[in-house]
Amino acid sequence: MTGYVIIGALVFLFVSDALYRSVVTRAKPLFPLSLQEERRASFALGALLWERSFPADLRRKYLLSIGSAALAVFCVALFAYITGHSNWAVFFAGLLLCVAVHGLVAWTKHRKRL
């Protein structure tokens, strides 16, 4: 069981990263020239993501990356619980709560833009 949880965490983490990077890469041309470097574009994405002119498909990919990250954190918390590391399980459950709240806020903003 623990092997599946570890593989699940790695897969969800990879998917989350790939989705986020694809959003940043496709959004770079929409940013001003001063923000088109990868690090600056990634930092500025949160501010420009909710503008009306920003493509809705990129917003959906961003939301999917948050969902994948939440699933990865859930797998890590489950792994910690299964292996008897209750303090780490509580820590990652709290982190899961933070990611879930962030995702809920982002989803609410996305729904307002539709």
Provide the descriptors you would attach to this structure in a database record:
mainly alpha; 114 residues
Description:
By secondary structure, the protein is mostly helical. The protein has one domain (2-113). Helix content is 81%, strand content 0%. The protein is built from four helices and no strands. α1 crosses α2. 20% of the residues are buried. The mean pLDDT is 91.
Given the helix and strand composition, which structural class is it? mainly alpha
Into which percentage range does the β-strand content fall? Answer: under 5%
Taking the sheet with the most strands, its summary is: none
Net shape = elongated
Question: What is the H-and-E element order?
Answer: HHHH
Work out the count of structural domains: 1
Helix content: over 70%
What is the overall pLDDT average?
Answer: 91
Amino- and carboxy-terminal Cα gap: 41 Å
Number of helices: 4
Count the strands?
Answer: 0
Poorly predicted spans: none
Radius of gyration: 16 Å
